[in-house]
Structure to design on (476 residues):
DNA sequence: ATAATAGTGTCTTTCAGACAGTATTAC
DNA sequence: GTAATACTGTCTGAAAGACACTATTAT
């Protein structure tokens, strides 16, 4: 491994933090206040410090910039991005992208006076985020994260990470519909979701709404869904 | 993103190069000749140089250490490893692991006199590689790579990457059996593999063997298998 | 009652998996 | 012929998807 020109680089952990609110998939973005006014949006990120692993940095970014603890948050490495090789920055930065699910937006945006420093993190609909001006490379990370989340919904119990302690089958279906971007047959989804061993666990409680009250469930012990909930069942636009 | 202590690191691309020979899954390993005699085995790797992307380094490692061109080789990023944070090396090294499929062992081991420098790369059965003394972290990369390859066989046409230009359905089945570590019902596999649109394309040729000659196929245009070839069909030991 | 949502019954079709049976070669 | 491998036919059971139907609330 004789190598004439190995390069030194800074390393960051960049987070694709996804959540489902109001039936739509949202991503956490930070707004860097550019002095020139036209500040860009970017994913929450943190440099990997000495003695720290990339995981540690990801957890730190989650805490400092999103204001969420790593408790109950699914954190999974997505991919590492090394392009562009050199812009005009003195040292190269390589970015390890992470997918974070389960950091709900309830804690964020505590009001104008509560913020200690400027973690101006906002939850933006993913379509808007992709249409707007994201930092270089961050759009790719976001689409990669959405695709990964979509795949994992099929064969893992990941969808429950988007929800609170107790949830209804409809709310669970809403997660699938938001991430996959389509409609699912409520009746078939209901049967299917309950048929998977260890996916859902009845709590005995109910939630009243506009129609018949829905039973509440918590996530079960299973992490793999078999047979999978296939994306093929999506119908129509939304 | 005020960060008090961002660390500089070297970056390497480490390759998990898998192939199927003699019905068994093999991995390419390089033997570093340690002066103390007891040299360790490690995955082929290359430092990411200035102006180079991690992909470039992976391709270079594939060429220099495995002696394969990137032509026809499926190269896919696996994961980035940042532990251990600091051993006694002055600068930290973070490793981007890649999965490489399709670099057959036919070109390697050109005989003792042909090697320019010591790319003493050998193909080792994965069970042996995992049992032996791999470099720190490389065992984890190898198991991650095997798992990833196994998953991708289910829903992509990746298996054909392990084979040459023309192959029989039995040879294809052999790939699945080697990677998944089990037996598949030949009759059902045959029907299933041929039923997937765009997976296999008949060439019209045949290969004679011990029994009835088998028709030859080349890979078709499809990259996704639907419905998937499920691992659930594995039976028995081998 | 009506609307709305939750949940069940049931029918059809598709497909996986088992395995019997046929085809084509080498010996 | 036998052995061996390639391939086809057919049966069965499980599950997906469609959709009609019942259940339970708010208004």
């Amino acid at each position: 491994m004789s190598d004439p020109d190995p390069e030194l680089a800074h390393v960051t952990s960049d987070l694709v933090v996804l959540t489902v609110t109001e039936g739509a998939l949202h991503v956490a973005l930070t707004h860097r206040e550019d002095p020139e006014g036209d500040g860009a949006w970017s994913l929450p990120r943190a440099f990997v410090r000495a003695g720290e692993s990339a995981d540690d940095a990801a957890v730190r970014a989650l805490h400092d910039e999103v204001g969420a603890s790593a408790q109950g948050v699914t954190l999974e490495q997505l991919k590492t991005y090394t392009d562009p090789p050199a812009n005009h920055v003195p040292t190269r930065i390589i970015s390890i992208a992470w997918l974070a699910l389960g950091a709900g937006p309830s804690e964020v945006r505590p009001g104008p006076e509560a913020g200690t420093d400027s973690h101006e993190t906002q939850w933006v609909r993913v379509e808007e985020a992709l249409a707007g001006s994201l930092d270089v490379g961050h759009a790719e990370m976001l689409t990669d994260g959405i695709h990964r989340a979509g795949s994992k919904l099929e064969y893992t119990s990941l969808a429950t990470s988007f929800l609170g302690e107790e949830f209804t089958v409809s709310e669970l279906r809403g997660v699938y519909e938001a991430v996959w971007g389509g409609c699912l047959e409520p009746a078939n989804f209901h049967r299917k979701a309950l048929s998977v061993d260890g996916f859902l666990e009845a709590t005995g409680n109910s939630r009243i709404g506009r129609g018949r009250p829905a039973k509440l469930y918590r996530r079960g012990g299973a992490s793999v869904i078999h047979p999978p909930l296939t994306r093929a069942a999506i119908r129509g636009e939304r």
